[in-house]
Structures are given as C-alpha cells and as structure tokens.
Amino acid sequence: MPRCRLQACDKVLQRRAEKVRLHRLWGDELPWPAGILRRSLQVLPNKRWCIKGGFTLELLLIHIDKVESFEQELPEETRAELEKGDEGSLRGFPFFHPWAFAGHLAKLTNRQANLLAALAEHIVGQALPSIRSLIRPPVPPLQMSFAQKLLEQPTTESTVHKV
User: Fold this and answer.
1) 127, 62 in Cβ contact below 8 A?
2) Helix (H) or strand (E) run with residue 16 in it
3) Which residues contact 108 (CB under 8 A, 6 or more apart)?
4) Banded model confidence at residue 86, pLDDT cuts 50, 70, 90
5) How far is residue 150's CA from residue 69's CA, in Å, rounded to a whole number?
6) Among residues 122, 112, 68, 114, which one has the least CA distance to residue 88?
C-alpha cells in the first residue's frame, strides 16, 4: 500500500461532516434537547479500512449535560444542595470529579450516583423518539425453503431412508 498521510488514509466521512463538534451540544438556543445530537453523515470509500462507502451513517450522540428542566423537577432539598455550588455535596453536578470527594479514584457517593442515573434516564427519555427512529422494523421471515419444509414434516417410514 502506498504511504499516505494518516488523516487521508483514515478518512471515512465527507469533509463538511468532520466539522460536527461536540461543543455544539452546549447552549440553550439549540433546537434539540440538551445532550442529544443527531446527524446524517455520508460515508466515503476507504481502501485501508475496506469500507465500500456510498451510504449514509445515522449518528446519534447522547451526552450527559446540565439540563435545567431536569433540575427544576428535583425535590426542594436536592435543588437547595445544587444551589450551594462548590460548597455543597453535589458540587460540579453533572460533571463530578470523583477523586476530589473521597480521595478514591472513581468513587461517588450514593446521592451523586443516584442523581447522575436520574439525569441519564431523563436525557435518554428525551432522546427516545430519535432512538426509536433509528431502529428499523423487524425483517419479515424468509420464505421457508424446501429443506426446511421436509425437516418439519412428521417422520414416517415412507420418508425415512434406511441405510
């Protein structure tokens, strides 16, 4: 294989599609719910990775992010803790730095873990229409082959070949 620049050899999406950036997930002015980004991207042929190309990739990113509507639905006690900011037990929510709390790597309190789980459930719930639209209807059953029909017939003396 001839030598090529790594980026050129690894390219599988159209140039304009490469400009999709995660930072576009942030901001209140976005037309989609926070933490959800859906794009249709054209896939290019790539000999290095044996990708034929010429088809569309449906990309759905679900990203944990701050969601005001979620926070407004929280119990008063939890909202009060969030309002404490860096002084509260939920400082940094939803971007917890677990090592900063208990001195252990990747350790969250039960309250932090439960709040993150509830936020993830809320965001996925908002993304459900997009998720469902990506799932194709089930493929209809194939026509039964002659061999399958034979296998399903009850075995009788006339259909069994003696060896």
Assistant:
1) yes
2) none
3) 96, 98, 101, 116
4) confident
5) 60
6) 112
Give CA separation, 122 vs 36, 62, 103, 128, in Å. Answer: 11, 11, 29, 10
Contact 38, 32 (CB under 8 A): yes
Q: Please report, for the chain, the start and end positions of each structural domain, with discontinuous segments joined by +.
A: 6-136
Query: If pLDDT is split at 50, 70 and 90, which confidence band does 97 have?
Result: confident
User: Token digits for 70?
Assistant: 């979620």
CB 94 within 8 A of CB 66: yes
Q: Amino acid identity of 53? A: G
Query: What are the tokens at 120?
Result: 């993830």
Q: Backbone dihedral region of 25: left (phi > 0), alpha (psi from -120 to 50 degrees) or beta? A: alpha
Q: What are 15-62's pLDDT values in tens digits?
A: 554 444 444 444 444 455 567 778 888 888 888 888 898 998 888 888
